[in-house]
Amino acid sequence: MREYILQGTERFGLSFETAASVADGLERLAAIQPDVLLLDLSLPDSQGVDTVARVRARHQAIPIVVLTGDDDETVAFEALKAGAQDYLVKGQIDAQILVRVIRYGIKRKLAEEELARERDLLRGLLNHIPDRIYFKDSASRFVRINQSMADRFHLPAPEAAVGKTDFDFHPAVTAEEFFADEQRMLESGKPIINKIERQTDEHGREVWASVTKVVMRDRQGHPTGLIGISRDISHLVRAEAALEKERTLLRNLVDHLPDYIYAVDGEGRFTMANEAFQELADRAVAQSLLGKTALELFAAPLGAEVHEAIAQVLRTGLAVINREEPCRLTKQEDCWLATTMIPLRNSDAHVVGLVAISHDITERRRARRELQSSNDELRSANTALRDLQLQVMHAERLQSIGRMAAGVAHEVKNPLAVLRMGVDFFLGAEATPELRSASGMVLEEMQSAITRADTIIMGMLNFSTPGEIQVKPVEVDGLLDHALTLVRHELNAHNYVVDRQPALRPAFALLDTQKIDQVLVNLLTNAFHAMPAGGRLTLRTVLHTLGTEEVGHDAGSRAGAQFRTGDDLIRIEIDDTGCGIPPDKVDKIFEPFFTTKETGKGTGLGLTVARKIVELHGGTLTLQNRPEGGVRSTLCFKATKERP
């Protein structure tokens, strides 16, 4: 029978190998891997459908054509279900039929494999794609959904949706809208592409999906249902809404700012302009600006100037920050802008445009000019005031010299009298031995008197010399001793006791000796006048480092915040035991032309000038009544490390 079946197949280019049992056949199949297997269902070691199952378990890819008897057709159909591709009935086979069946079996196997591959691809796509995919029949009933769709509906498996509709998963209003869209689509045949649908999730929150639906058709082209793909774009919709909100906010902000704002691309073409710039550029709407360059918008040479300013930033990539320039887009005179241009860069850091903002600074420049003019006038007034102050200081100095005149005359008169007596002595006496012995003593007294007179007169000249403040390092105690020398006549003429308490170590400050001499003499003279019957004068010098708790700031004081924490200060204290200052006069003693002295004994400028001199040195001058009686005058100066 086997030879009969294979007889005549050689002319079709077929070759065969045979095996008498399943066991033998399985070994041969592993060795030769044939294109097709003719399998008899009646073999010594295997019968019926089990024969197909045994072969298919070992060789999935080989097409199988089974051989069965006339009465075994039912078995043959079972074999096809078990994995065979076709069957032949024994006794009804010739070479031509055999070849045709073999070829069909091979093609069917290839088709089954291709179908299996496509089925696996589809299953993989449906099970793993995050988009929700579904198939519906013409009544909009689900026939299949993917895993993502099942998760959306909270179903245990995709098969649970079969036969259900959108009414089972969505609110009635939403489901009705979906159903109406799908029925119109099935009637018209037109697909729905990327339609944005608003839906509600299981928590009642609003969600959005991008939906695409296409019609499924049979082989005759009749619509049988539809395929739908739904993608959750809620995050995109919310982001777009937020972006639109920010864009609207930015647009409103930009359009309502009084500044002139615009943007250009890498070619210098305008891509945005706010309303202020449109008005400045004499344009009714922004569209008349967009896409054009400055060369196209503005007449020469203005267009070329604006275009070149933009091109410079685009070319160099360097920002322009608050460049002040005349406004070239208006005919208004004296109009100025502060312009900032910032280059815009892409992800590769290449310049792709710029944004510019210009602020009208016309009023600010006018105010600046007016302020400059006011400052010039103020400087002129300050110079005049300084000259006047120097004149007042000079007048006070002359007044002080007048008060000192009597004492100076007395001091100079006595030395001159001694000189005159010495001269008379040498001229009127005989040159006796006694004369010669006494001459040495007389000459020494004459020399001392001349030196004293010279010192007094030179001190007076130095005191009375006017001029600007010329500071240099000065030892403060030496300056105090010099001031006492200038008032020596007052000290000698009255019953004053002087208590000098110098600093523990030499203390230096940057001072103008002539000016400070004037201050000290004024304060000492005031102390003398307060003690007409004599008294005690204490001059004290203290070095002191200023602590935090000692720093104060009087907003109404001209010398407010004069010193700072940690400064080394020199404090000069002059105490008298006089009558003190009347309490109602304490706040007025530094006022010009105010005096507590009798008429003719003071100009009322001494303390005013003295305080001004001290303040010009960066110091302070205060007067206050002492609890034990009298007045304490306190001078404070910042110590210096410089030395003469």
Largest pleated sheet: 5 strands, antiparallel
Broad structural category: alpha+beta
Number of helices: 17
Taking strands numbered 1, 2, ... along the chain, how are they ordered across the largest sheet? 7-6-10-9-8
State the end-to-end distance. 142 Å
Mean pLDDT rating: 79
- The gyration radius over C-alpha positions equals 59 Å
Number of strands: 22
General description of the model:
- The protein is an alpha+beta fold.
- 45% of the residues lie in helices and 22% in strands.
- The chain is built from 17 helices and 22 strands.
- The strands form six sheets. The chain has a five-stranded antiparallel beta sheet with strand order 7-6-10-9-8, with helices on both faces. It has a five-stranded antiparallel beta sheet with strand order 12-11-15-14-13, with helices on both faces. A five-stranded mixed beta sheet has the order 17-19-20-22-21.
- A hairpin with a 2-residue loop joins strand 2 and strand 3.
- The longest helix is centred in the middle third of the chain and has 67 residues.
- The protein is elongated and about 195 Å long.
- The protein starts with a helix and ends in a 6-residue tail after the last strand.
- About 2% of the residues have low confidence.
Compose a concise summary of this entry.
By secondary structure, the chain is an alpha+beta fold.
